[in-house]
Amino acid sequence: MKIAILSRNKKLYSTQRLVEAGEEHGHEVHVFDTLKCYMDIASHRPSIHYKGEKLGGFEAVIPRIGASITFYGAAVLRQFEMMGVYPLNESVGITRSRDKLRSLQILARAGVGLPLTGFAHSTDDTQALINVVNGAPLVVKLLQGTQGKGVVLAETYQAAESLIDAFRNLDANFLVQEFIKEAGGSDIRCFVIGDRVIAAMLRQAKAGEFRSNLHRGGTASRIKLTPEERSTAVRAASKMGLNVAGVDILRSNHGPVVLEVNSSPGLEGIEHATGLNVAGKIYEFIEKNAKPGKTRTRGTG
Ligand code: ADP
Ligand code: MG
After folding, report:
1. What is the C-alpha to C-alpha distance for residues 1 and 269, in angstroms, rounded to an integer?
2. Which of 61, 78, 155, 274 is the most exposed place for a label (fewest CB within 10 A)?
3. pTM of the entire structure?
């Protein structure tokens, strides 16, 4: 098959592995810098151009779209979809997953386990907001944050109140969330492809830190999931409309709760922690599913 990878950087581990595994599977793989693709959107025959050339003949596209370029990246992917190219993840699913609030609303409606969560922009009723999550300790999260940057723990009621007031004064959008203390600074990354979790790792925060992001010095190891954790992860990905997703789960006293669903999950951490060929499994999925006309939304829903 002729397959396009949308990625800002050929040298990234995930991109390199996708090229390598694609070639191992006998495919012709091309990497395009998402921001350098340009489009003819108004004509009857939608097209994509790259470095002066019109792209054609692609059967599948693998989007690796970073959070900072979601807007343009989704437009490029949508263009591929309108040309009938099979997307590993659809633009609609990616856009959904990038909005933390929208994601939580979709998951809640589907009955997926979540931490108690309140959302506010400029409520004057800080107390009521704190009560939504049963008081302190609680976690406050900026909606735009990634890699643990906008995530703060307020250990006492007073700390929570001043933190919320401060964010409110900055006009920031934020979530207030029950602190899952029993997770002990760890979370579980479930790598979902189709209707299966094909790999999972436990990420443990470094000492004195509750955020387990690998970017923040967390360490990863292989883990065996319970059937409930598996089904939660698969359900979360499917409700978001994603074929491939990194679903992050905490082990709480009230069962597995989903923190977030990542639509361009990294391969480095998970392949190293598990020793599995995750990139190869992505191609197995594409080979089974990429058929003309298989895009459900045509990018416009
Ligand atoms: P980001 O998108 O910045 O990664 P997350 O919501 O994933 O934000 O939070 C970062 C990390 O903080 C998580 O991986 C987890 O270890 C920890 N964390 C987040 N929310 C909670 C919570 N409600 N209770 C306990 N730990 C949490
Ligand atoms: Mg996270």
Report:
1. 28
2. 155
3. 0.94
Rounded to the nearest angstrom, the distance between the alpha carbon of 191 and the centre of ligand 1 is: 17
Among protein residues, the one whose CA lies closest to atom 2 of ligand 1: 146
Q: What is the pLDDT along the chain (301 residues), one digit of tens a residue?
A: 999 999 999 999 999 999 999 999 999 999 999 999 999 877 788 899 999 999 999 999 999 999 889 999 999 999 999 999 999 999 999 999 998 889 999 999 999 999 999 987 766 788 999 999 999 999 999 887 778 888 999 999 999 999 999 988 888 889 999 999 999 999 999 999 999 999 999 999 999 999 999 889 999 999 999 999 999 999 999 999 999 999 999 999 999 999 999 999 999 999 999 999 999 999 999 999 998 666 666 555 4
Amino acid at 187: D
Closest residue (by CA) to atom 19 of ligand 1? 211
Note the ligand closest to the C-alpha atom of 265.
Answer: 2
- Angle 80-85-88 (CA atoms, 0-180°, nearest 5)? 90
CATH topology of domain 2-89: Rossmann fold (3.40.50)
Q: Which atom of ligand 1 is nearest to the CA of 212?
A: 16
Ligand 1 residue neighbourhood (C-beta within 6 Å)? 115, 139, 141, 145-149, 151, 177-180, 183, 187, 210-213, 248, 250, 259-260
Atom 21 of ligand 1, nearest CA residue:
179
Say if residues 208 and 196 touch (Cβ distance below 8 Å).
no
Can you list the alpha helix ranges (DSSP code H) found in the chain? 13-24, 70-82, 91-97, 100-109, 126-132, 157-169, 227-240, 268-274, 278-289
Tell me which of 3.30.1490.20, 3.40.50.10310, 3.40.50.2300, 3.10.20.310 is the CATH number of domain 117-179: 3.30.1490.20
Say which CATH topology domain 96-112+182-276 has.
D-amino Acid Aminotransferase; Chain A, domain 1 (3.30.470)
